[in-house]
Amino acid sequence: MDVWVARAELIGCAMADQAVTVPGRDVHPALRTIKLMPGQENSDRCELVCEVEHMGDASFDVRKEIWALASDCIERVAARLSVAMWEPLQVRLKDVALRNPRTSGISQSLTYAPESGQIIRPPARVATDALSGQIEGSVLRALVWTRKALADEHPYDKFLGLVIACTIIATHHFRDGAPVRETECPRCGAKRVLKPSEREYLASMCIALGEDPNLAGQIWPLRSALVHGGVGHQAKTRFEVRDLVSRVEHLLQKAVERVTGGKLSFPSVPRGELQFIDYQVEGGSHRGP
User: Which of 103, 269, 246 is nearest to 162 (CA)?
Assistant: First the structure.
């Protein structure tokens, strides 16, 4: 069994005071260890080093597989940390290198040139506790979507990413309260069971978590309109999306806490309503966000 060392940067709101190493099996079966270290250049980034185990030789085709495996491991680590801090994290996978079992040095390396990125958020301390304990596959996929949403600056894409994450959790873990209907064919009389829709699963999750069930009715039409191109970039739509994002974030946080059994928990996030201020423009005053 070969051990590959994957090095990456976590950028945006990640700050490690000192190097810390934690076991990686709970995050991915192939992950031996996860090491977080302070960044060399900026305080708003940290270095991530993962030891990834892989069976087989290092042929050209296998290298592609190893790169994909390392990318998956890094993505899972970043997703857990991003969601635990509830802050956006960008990920740059720098290289994946084969460790020599005799000398512990590097014998082969797979690299690529990372793109430059802009840091726009202040640093927050890395929540390494989020890397302990196994998380079910569908929840992990929701965490990946949540990280993407937190890192996205466009309000429409952020909203859609959060809704996708909510929908994944709702359809897998909040089925009990969703309505199941039975219909009968008018020709042959055969009965058929109609499964609940994703919107109904979402409403069921809202009820189970003590949230307003009407929230699903506000989320879903807007989600469908954005996905299918039914809305443009009108100011009213942007305000509506911004107002809903904080409510969806709050719902998603409660859902993640519930389905992970408290493995991931969050400080309370204010669910402020959209505020308006008056400012002067040529020809009169204007109210805007």
Answer: 246
Helix (H) or strand (E) holding 90: strand 90-99
pLDDT tens, residue by residue, 179-225: 667 777 777 777 777 788 888 999 999 999 999 889 999 999 889 88
The answer to whether residues 86 and 253 touch, using CB atoms and an 8 Å cutoff, is yes
Q: Distance between CA 64 and CA 68 in Å, rounded?
A: 6
Most confident of 96-100, 166-170, 230-234: 166-170
DSSP letters of 141-188?
HHHHHHHHHHH--SHHHHHHHHHHHHHHHHHHH--TTS--EEEE-TTT
Q: What is the Cα–Cα distance from 113 to 252, expressed in whole angstroms?
A: 35
pTM for this one?
Answer: 0.66
Q: CA nearest 252: which of 224, 214, 215?
A: 215
Distance of CA 159 to the CA centre of its chain: 12
- Scan for tokens 């740059």, then name that residue: 92
